[in-house]
Amino acid sequence: MYSLEQLKIFVTVCETGSFSAAARQLKRAQSGVSQSIANLEIAIDKTLFNRDKNTPTLTEQGIALLPIAKSMLHQQQNFDQKVQSLAQGEEHELVIAIDESLVNQVLIKILSSLAEQFPITHFELVIASTFDVENMVKEGEAQIGIVYVDGELKVDMDFFTLGHARFLTIASPTHSLANLSIVEEADLKLHRQCVHRSNQKKELWFSYKISPTAWYANTHKALIELVKQNVGWAVVPELLATQYIESGEVMSLPVAHEYDGWLTVVGCLVSRSRSSGPVLLAVTQLLQQYSLAEKQWIQRA
Amino acid sequence: MYSLEQLKIFVTVCETGSFSAAARQLKRAQSGVSQSIANLEIAIDKTLFNRDKNTPTLTEQGIALLPIAKSMLHQQQNFDQKVQSLAQGEEHELVIAIDESLVNQVLIKILSSLAEQFPITHFELVIASTFDVENMVKEGEAQIGIVYVDGELKVDMDFFTLGHARFLTIASPTHSLANLSIVEEADLKLHRQCVHRSNQKKELWFSYKISPTAWYANTHKALIELVKQNVGWAVVPELLATQYIESGEVMSLPVAHEYDGWLTVVGCLVSRSRSSGPVLLAVTQLLQQYSLAEKQWIQRA
DNA sequence: CAGCAGCTATCACAAATCGTGATAGTCTGG
DNA sequence: CCAGACTATCACGATTTGTGATAGCTGCTG
């Protein structure tokens, strides 16, 4: 089992260019640095450096592992910073993360009203895919997330429903699928699929890859553009696709058993791992005044 | 200094509900689990669990640190997986990461031509902010990145210029800044700024926060929407803002010494930590045939 | 209420790991 | 060729880790 210290030494050697320089920078004995690298290599059963010259050079394996080692150390810094901030006080920021296909003018207008109500608070809007949003809320990077919901019980988060969104299967009008009066799943599988995939490589539970060939994108907007270029077919939100369907740039396919598309729940996640205060309360109350009804955010009665 | 093993034990206790259950799951002595948690608490000088009852309950501090501990272990899994995949073979995928404000129909049309040329290859388009894109290329998560470039030497990446993009300072027509014939920096500082900030909390080198109050977003599109709602002023790409300026929804401010906005380089980063093959070569050659000229992607002569 | 099962904490001890300083061998540039 | 800088190995002491035994506490059940 390797340690964070070993990773730190590994990265420092790469940054300084030699074991000795790393030792000097870290104020350690050079022999300890040499041993730590050797121990790390033993632990992972991989050679990280060529030592045939006077200064070590990264192996291909070392090159491949360095970014992840750096990433782990970066996360460690996050941990340490969090430890420090726990010893101090509040935070003056509120992070709202929203699925990229749920953001439109109306929603931002709704949220903008918070500016007058809380003039000192720094808000951050993070636009990302549903899985990334959920992960951000789970990890405490965002206090609020607006996402598509898959029915699984949410852990460490509060949840309330905001409405429903419809997803349609679309293709270019010049695509051969566009000539079918009924589109079976077998028809779809004959053609390349444009799949939504989050930064964590997760696919939505109702639009995952079923074709053997695929292109991926992490925004539904990009998917629509790929469909317009006739790269393939895709499942996308009606909220985004409507204008392109009306202009004839794409068309909604009559998929067997899904003539009206796929309806999915839109909800709001509220972090429990971030301290809650009056601002968070106000935001959740504001959101609960609105509902997403297929194509539009509307105010509840 | 805490270890990854201590973090793993911490997370396992939280998941199993007690020190004993964690010990059973991890096939360790309970006393070792107790010691490891105590040692972790000593290392970070924070109490993670209340032990006043029969089973431990997370403290507020424990709750705050758990997500980051999980994240670190997740990264460790990534490291371990990478170690394993180094022992195995190739990959059949190519990831292109693009700054969100540089994506438009034309660029996607350009890239879509790759579908016919490489029908078997899985492409992934990742839309993110410049810093995130750069980080992805640096960490080997993407082979190609299209970003704004700040003039710093790129480490572990190849680079070539694609063109230039202009950034404008905009505000709502009803904003008080819109009445000034010349806008000084001091004027801007009197009002809330809408700042672009990446997922890594990085701000662009020419549009960082100068006002004491700010709202943040990780897409320029969202910034424009905030400006339209008169939340504040923002520095955004002309490529995105032009249509809203022409329709009168926002206006470009005549900032002193920056009448024509800020011109910045757009470039293509190519990862060196991912193996290169014919597909990567074809993509880079395709991109080198095009140039971004302020408002539009055009084909070079 | 008493007994029992399950919980955490502490102790003693052995094993494992870590870090230092000394030393030897190799490489590189002047 | 020589001096300086490099890495590797060794011996050793210090520190950490893990086990098993033990003691004390909590919560449930009859």
CATH class placement of the largest domain in chain A:
Alpha Beta
Distance between the termini of chain A: 59 Å
Whole-number count of domains of chain A = 2
Please identify, by name, the CATH architecture of the largest domain in chain A. Answer: 3-Layer(aba) Sandwich
Protein described:
Two copies of one chain form a homodimer. The first copy, chain A, has 301 residues and is of the alpha/beta class. Chain A has two domains: 4-87, Arc Repressor Mutant, subunit A (Orthogonal Bundle); 92-301, 3-Layer(aba) Sandwich (D-Maltodextrin-Binding Protein, domain 2), CATH 3.40.190.290. Chain A is 39% helix and 24% strand. Chain A has eleven helices and 13 strands. In chain A, helix 1 packs across helix 2, helix 1 crosses helix 3 and helix 2 (19-26) crosses helix 3 (30-44). Chain A is flat and about 70 Å long. The structure holds a DNA duplex (30 and 30 nucleotides). Chains A, B: It comes from marine sediment metagenome. Chains A, B: It holds the Pfam family HTH_1. Chains A, B: One of its GO terms (molecular function) is transcription cis-regulatory region binding. Chains A, B: Belongs to the LysR transcriptional regulatory family.
Descriptors:
homodimer; 301 residues; alpha/beta; Arc Repressor Mutant, subunit A; D-Maltodextrin-Binding Protein, domain 2; 2 domains; 11-stranded mixed β-sheet; two-stranded antiparallel sheet; flat; DNA-binding; WH_DNA-bd_sf (chains A, B); HTH lysR-type domain-containing protein (chains A, B); DNA-binding (chains A, B); LysR_HTH_N (chains A, B); transcription (chains A, B)
